[in-house]
Structures are given as C-alpha cells and as structure tokens.
Fold:
Amino acid sequence: MRFHHEFDVGVALDTVYDALLDIERVAPCLPGAEVLARTGADAFSVAVKVRVGAASLQYRGDVQVLERDDQARRAVLSIKARETRGQGAAEATAEMRLAAGDAATRVGLDTEVNLTGKAATMGQGIIAAVSERLVGQFAQNLSSMLAPADPRPRGPMVG
Structure:
C-alpha cells in the first residue's frame, strides 16, 4: 500500500528537518511509539502500539535512516517490525521531503507499507484511515513540541 501525507509545521525548515531526523526525540510524537535503544549511528530499536479497527496491535522492530540529503531536506527511512503477540509483520519505506513556506515548513511524506498478519486482513480503507489519524496526531504533537515557548509571563505579577 502507498500513502501520501502532507502537513505544515509553523517552525523554521532547519528546525523541523533536524527534529524529524532525531528519532529518539521525535518518536514520542507518534502515538504509541517509543525508542527502546540506539543500535547504530542512524538505527534504532522501537516499539509501537496501534489500534486498527477493533484490534490493538503491538509491534517491535527497527527504524533506520537509509538516505539523508541535508541540502535538499530529504530523507528515507526503513521500518521493519513484527507483532509481539502474533504472526504479523510490517515493513515500510518512508520518504520525507521538506520545503519552506511563508510562515511554516511543509512536510511531504510518501510511505510504501507491506503488512502481513491481522493488520493485512483489515482492508486498505481501514489502514488508510488509521494512517491518516496517526499522521494527523503526529503533526500536531510535532508542532507542539517545536513551538517556541511563550515569553509572556504567566499568572499575577508580584512586585
């Protein structure tokens, strides 16, 4: 299955690019994801819990940055994982492309996903809906994480 997503992050291009390639920092932005360990310079052991239809699936696997073009603000990641309580697996290749906009950074994400096991029986419509929801939540969480702190004082002024 192929998916294409785009979203805007109201922060400078370099800040977004650096954050997206800092897997340990950005993983918590994806609901249910966590980095378990760094296994190489650009490789990580990860765990992900995801709800697909009525099923709650747990995966454990690896994420690796395969390609990185800092000048073009483009990267390709490989994700390979197996269900922790089942026979299923998930493999994906995700290409990220970033572009500067007027007041935001535009993130384009093209993903090729191959599923086996319980998730594969759900149908492309359900998988697409879950993908859309997860990317939407990821975009919101990334924006919140990268938003500059509000410099205005909070609460009553004491003086």
The CA atoms of residues 13 and 105 lie 5 Å apart.
